[in-house]
Amino acid sequence: MRVTDVEVIPISHRLPEGRGLGDARGFGRDRATTLIRVETDDGETGWGEAFAPGSVVAPVVDEFFRDAVVGMDPFDVRRLAEDSYTDPYHFGGSVFVQSALSGIDVALWDLVGKATGKPVHRLLGGRERETLTAYASTMYFTEEDRPIAEPIEEAVEEGFAAAKIKIGTGVDSDVERVRAAREVLGDDARLMVDINGNYRPRQAIRTIKAIEEFDVTWVEEPVPPENLSGYREVKSRVDVPIAAGEAHYGRFEFKRLVDDRTVDVVQPNLGRCGGLTEANRIADMATTENVAVRPHIWNSAVGLAAAVQFAASVSDYPHTRNVPDPMMVEFDRSENPLRDEILTTPFDPTGGEVSVPQGPGLGVDVDEDAVERYRADR
Ligand SMILES: [Mg+2]
């Protein structure tokens, strides 16, 4: 089996005027990402997602990957992540190289799974679980004037028993939002908060101490992703676990997050971290240091599928029969047809769980007509 073509497919969706949503840094109306479609000489198709703008991914694929990938045997997939640091020398540590690599790598694993008849999580080292707890990503800052607890009420009605909400615009607002979410969720549900790097360390520490009484499972990106000394300062001053990783890519960056236990939870995005090959290495490294791995997922259904396959394979170490801190996958509850419409059978988080697809490769069928509807380059 040899690769015959790599296609870069930018897809996007714009929310209606006045319906923008976002985080502490501001609102946005556009959801956009890039699918990678790899074909082989035996007529098979593999899919991946590069979580970066297609207008950038396309020339990166052409410049750095196309010659190496066309003609390649997909079973040589692990070589690609290694080569990304040596050829192109000096450029491998770039977010756009790693994003393009992510999409190609996942598409190649999809092909290996299809060739062997096995789901990707079996190829990565085995099945740890067949269903995954899904947490609702919700309670965004919105342009609409809605009661703040309404999105959490909707998530509870769907059956979610875990949620992540946006905070980060000041300690009073942070406490109000966390209190409202906790009241709706009840005492037993897991509640995470995301500051999206909007604070300096002392602001973050003040907020985290103020919300600690609401039993927060983790605080995500309390300070900007590049501010590793800030992470260490925050972590040394609070008792709530600290998470980061959605903005990081490549095992070398993740090593810095894991070293000295800079964070308690790493969150690789399968469309940015370097793909399944690199995520597997990151998981091994994090697990070795007893740092939790919880994938970040704000992707299309293809990136979601990759993350679900990955999450299904990650060890529960150090837990054995009792797992007080279970693997969870993020399930965004904002409007996004790129997540809900491009698979013939979309993921269904009703009841707060998703099934791990057991079919070959990513275990999903991409609806190519639906992809065409959201193509951004036509
Ligand atoms: Mg986040």
Condensed summary:
The chain has helices at residues 54-69, 77-86, 95-116, 120-123, 150-158, 171-185, 201-211, 228-237, 251-258, 276-288, 301-313, 337-340, 368-373; strands at residues 3-14, 21-23, 26-28, 30-40, 45-50, 131-138, 141-142, 162-166, 190-194, 218-220, 242-244, 265-266, 292-293, 328-332, 353-355.
CATH topology of the largest domain: TIM Barrel
Query: With helices defined by DSSP (H or I, 4 residues minimum), what is the helix count?
Result: 13
What portion of residues belong to β-strands?
15-25%
Query: On the 0-100 scale, what is the average pLDDT?
Result: 96
Spans with pLDDT under 50 lasting ≥5 residues? none
Number of domains: 2
Q: What class, by secondary structure content?
A: alpha/beta
Report the CATH C-level class of the largest domain.
Alpha Beta
General shape: globular
Protein name: Mandelate racemase
Region (Disordered): 341-378
Cofactor: Mg(2+)
Domain Mandelate racemase/muconate lactonizing enzyme C-terminal: 148-241
What's the structural blueprint in terms of helices and strands?
Elements: E1 3-14, E2 21-23, E3 26-28, E4 30-40, E5 45-50, H1 54-69, H2 77-86, H3 95-116, H4 120-123, E6 131-138, E7 141-142, H5 150-158, E8 162-166, H6 171-185, E9 190-194, H7 201-211, E10 218-220, H8 228-237, E11 242-244, H9 251-258, E12 265-266, H10 276-288, E13 292-293, H11 301-313, E14 328-332, H12 337-340, E15 353-355, H13 368-373
Helix pairs in contact: 1-3, 2-3, 6-7, 7-8, 9-10
The structure holds magnesium ion (MG).
The site of magnesium ion has 5 residues, from loops.
